[in-house]
Amino acid sequence: MKELSKNTSTLLFILLTGVLVVIAFTSYNKIRQFNKSVDLVMDTQIVKANIIELRSIVTDAESGQRGFLITNDSVFLQSVVGAEQRSNLVFSKLESLISDNVGQKENLKKLKTLLAERYLLLNKTLESFKNSPSANLPTDSLLLESKNKMDEVSNKIALMLQTEDVLLEQRIQVKDRKATLTPIFLLLLSLFSIVALTLFFFRLRKETNSRVSATKLVEVEAEARKQIEASELFNRTVLESSPDCLKVLDNEGRIQYMNFNGLCQMEIDDFSTFKNKNWWTIWGSENEALVKASLDKAITGKIAQFIAYCPTAKGTPKWWDVLVSPVGKAGEPVQQIISVSRDITEQKKSEEAIEKIAAHLTLATDSANVGTWSFNVQKQELEWSAVHKKMWGYDAHRTDLTYEDWHKLILPEDKEKTFEKIDEAKNIHNSYDVEYCINRANDDAVRCIRSVGKYYYNEKGEAETLTGISVDITQQKESELKLKASEEKYRGIFEAMDQGFSIIEMIFDSDNKPVDCVYIETNPVFEKQTGLKNVTGKTVRELIPNLEEEWFQIYGKVALTGEPNRFIEGSEALGRWFETYAFRLGDQGSKKVAVLFTDITERKQNEETLQYRKALLEAHNEANRDGLLLVDAKGKIISYNQSFIDVWRMPKEIVDAKDDELALAFAMAQLVNPQQFIDKVKWLYEHPSETSIDELEYLDGRIIERHGYSVVGEDGTYYAWSWTFRDITEQKAAAEAIKESETRFRTMAEATEVLIGVADEASNVTYFNKAWVDLTGRPMEDLLKLGWADLLHPEDKDRVVDTYLSAFANQEGYELEFRILNKNGEYSWLLAKIPARFHPDGTFAGYISASIDITDRKEAEEKIKDARELLETTFQNVPSAIYNFDKTGKILYLNEIGANQIGYATTEEVLAEKDALQLRKRAYETFTVLNEQGQPMPVDQHSTALTFKTGKSSEVVSQLINKKTGASLWLLSRASPIYDASDQLVKVLSTSTDITLQKVAAEAIKESEVKFRVLSENVPHMIWTATADGKRNFFNKHTLDYTGLTHAELEDDGWQQPIFHEDIENDVSKWHHAVATGEDLRAEKRLRRHDGSFRWHLCHSIAQKGSNGSIKGWIGTCTDITEHKAFTEELEIKVNQRTTELKKTNEELKHTNTQLGQFAHITSHDLQEPLRKIITFSKRLQDEYQEELTTGAKTYLDKIEAASDRMRNLIQDLLNYSRLLEHEKSVENTNLNETLKNILTDFELLVDEKKAEIKSDALPTIEAIPLQMNQLFYNLIGNALKFSREEVPPVITITSRTLSEKDVKKYPTLNPSSSYVEIIFKDNGIGFEQQYSEKIFTIFQRLHNRDTFVGTGIGLALTKKITENHNGLTFAAGQEHIGASFHVILPFTQPQ
């Protein structure tokens, strides 16, 4: 019976083994199939990437070819050279990847052939162009063939991509299905295996209990020993897997064991020299008490922790974070102690680096007088440097400053702008740079501040801190204002003059003969008087090549002799006559001449007026940014502007030929579709009544909008075509390293902060220690059910899982850094070292993972990164050069401004220079260095050299003059020493601030004052200045000479003496009003000359205002206009005569219009009378002879009646149209809502018949002629109902909106000073093609025959005329078979 039971057990064991083998094989096969489906998805994605890469190569080559053909610039050939070889490499990859796909192989083969042909054509095209680059572009046939071949290539690539997309979707579905089913299948197999093993185990135990023997007891003991050995091995593996230095101590503190990582970290080659050694002895005497105290605490059963410094066995300095834990059962004495020491040396270095960076930043910003600040957004806490506090008027030692202390000092007018900039930087994750003013806290002084800052964000993308720098730029702003005020004073005369004024510098040849001159400065009137624009910095020869020689002789003599010259001279080159006064500026040797002139052309020669107007028109055309071209009826160019040449980039010889055919040939070479261009031009020339608006596409990618219309005389003769071209190109063109963890394994694992996890040979996690639970806040059960994977950071999850599965497949260890979600909802960084574990017999047993929290290290790294970014941002944004020297004088760091100041283009060039002396030599070769007194500055007197010599801070002002260009630069240099812990000077931080503006401003102010004095004393005008309250304080020499009075006699109220007695009261009253209001004053008055005669003068008084609008003073001029006034009076007499003639002509025209209106009314009445009889007798024939009439006769009568109706409607419409021409003026307030209501009543039956829907907004009330508004609404709504689509109920929407000023400016015919409403009538009818949008408003024009839609073709013409009568406009937009919208723009009020 026992033998039978034994045999049964054997058979069951064999059967179970076989089943397990089958299960294992099946599981392996399922996993292999799943992996294969993943590989197929990845292969398909790689194929797609290669096809896209191939497309990119071909597209780049195509673009390069176009760029080269258009510009002849070889830089475009970079994408062409080697394109075919790169394509072949991609083909090789694709051939190996799609070898199992017959369809794609065939597509690839065809694509390869097409590409070979395309590259052949591409090379052929380029060779053709290279061989004759001066010729035109390659022939149309070659370009067309290239384009067609490229289209075939693009289509084939698109087909292959589409095929791969379908294949990828199918493979992803297969992969997702296997990813779902495979785990379920494996779980079922595992459950079956567990059940089978459990049943077999119970049967085996039953047999074992009945057959216990001595032999079996021996076997049990052997098995127990084996398990103990395995347990020891398991524990040792746990210890060895820890990445920290892990030691086991006895209860007296002697070292019994140290893991391999610990030996490596402590640099111990032979552990025997440390075994049984007292642990505290390796820490040194300074840490002995600390170590012993932690051991004493552990002996009592508590965990101790400390941070201390301890070098390695080889003397390498290291810092350690140490955890000391007891090992033993609860309630029993501690037998062993585990010490886990984590190397935190790098963290300590990071902290020290941050401190050093902070120190350097403080030193640099203090030296450059730059304040730094940081604002914690979430805590609303503000930190300011001492410099920043002083800058804002706060005590440097204050620590209680808040956000409000910052916000309240900014001037109200600057707050909105400032915080808009800051908010914008926050939204776009960028830095900001803003200038604003503050009221300083301690003295309420207004200071100008420039602030540069940047937001820093946490992992969730939330703003944490706002950090930046501030610089006081008050001195710079004050210099700018002083310079501006001085210039305003100087330019005040310019603004007050009615004469042209310029300053020129004469150019002489070697014989001192004047040959040319350069315009230095001109006043606003200069352009009006001469017609010359943008002349500053240009020579007269350049601007007026054929200017008469006598002008240079006159000005040259003034410059050489210093004798002023007043003369009248005409210039054929300018077509003008001038009354000119020229005098030298400056002392002898100066070549500058001031020229004061008046254009007297009209006075000299009235017949030149026409030429002058023509010049203005040409100037207008040249100022127009659109290209303008006028071509006569025979195709010859009449005129063009510079913008036309710029748009077409047309050579001068083609333009000068004025040959339309030659210009068209050149245009074809630039256009994408040249034939369409030619056909359109020829068609328009054959149909001069048509207009054209189209877009031209250029080969270089530009889009040009072309407008064309014929020029037709009053008699209907076609004279020319006018074209405009506008460049509208710009318009056409607008998952994060696996989760951190810490646990303890059983007794030893629970005593450490290291996170321990155990996985068996089948990749199932069987254990997590308490540290994992504490970190994640998840129950052990959740973690064992793959809950740990759910805690991984999304950006790390795939990488961690892939590495985990790959390591199991290869049975090898691995190491990872990843992020994991902790119980606080934040991500912690973990470093995991995971060695492979094996059984004593060498078979794979799985893994023991040991992970440590490295969040502090990562945060330290991030802090260093942020600190370096802040330091770099500060250095790059500080408006000063910054240098950091070591103790030998070598530059360790400098910003871009610093590199530029010493003659280098980039910082890299400076830092690459090893020899500090070479840098100094280069700087002195580039610049002449002077001190503030203008004397050469020795090298040892520079601020940096002084600081190295004395060990103290220094400050020096110097001037650098570029030896090559002569450019001058003033610098304020400051240097500060940096000492180490032993008070040894190790570095010097130096800053150099550009103070050129302040220096130049001071000189400019001085020069401006001189210019003002010289100018005022030489111009033939009376010039004076006054204080803000109106007291005269300066009169020029011409004023004294003209009046014969002294300066003292004219002061106070003495300036009133020369005024004609009838003008004094009115003039003084106006002057007091101007002083009170700050308004400029312009008046004509009679002033007494020294000989007693009175002459007419035009006097200007202009207020000089500060940036805040306050008056700082007054400048006035008086110009003699006696002759001009006499000429004007004579001209007014002629104008009055001409006005009388025009009034008479207008009366005659009005009378004629009245007669025409009467004629139209009588004619329409006379025409309608015969029509009524025709209709009456036709109806009587039908009624009385109905039975006798044949079918044909009835048809004829129907046609007579229909034609008569049309004629009657036409006559009525013509009568309405003629009435509109009278343009009645009975304008009144018209409520358009009432108008619409009346019209809807008229159409009520038709609306019901067509089942139409009419929707409307609330419409405004405007000034209009009510009857015409009724007519307008009637026509537009009637059109929408008439031109509706069959089987589609009409939907008519009427909306309105008030046009903004910007909108009004879009329509040149509208008055910019009026307010307008736009009313839009939109329907869903038959619509029309947009090209007919203007034609439909022409009288009698129809887009459909009358059999389809009845009507006379006058309705929309009436609508347009009504809007024109009301000073508005109308236009339409449509899309065939979709609908149309009619836009009516009317003013709210009619002009008086």
Automatic annotation (TrEMBL):
Domain Histidine kinase span(s) in chain numbering: 1162-1390
Boundaries of every PAC domain copy: 297-356, 432-485, 814-866, 954-1007, 1081-1133
Reaction catalysis annotation: ATP + protein L-histidine = ADP + protein N-phospho-L-histidine
Domain PAS per the UniProt entry, residue ranges: 741-811, 867-908
SUPFAM superfamilies xrefs: ATPase domain of HSP90 chaperone/DNA topoisomerase II/histidine kinase (SSF55874), Homodimeric domain of signal transducing histidine kinase (SSF47384), PYP-like sensor domain (PAS domain) (SSF55785)
Coiled coil: 1193-1220
Listed name of the protein: histidine kinase
Organism for this UniProt entry: Gelidibacter algens
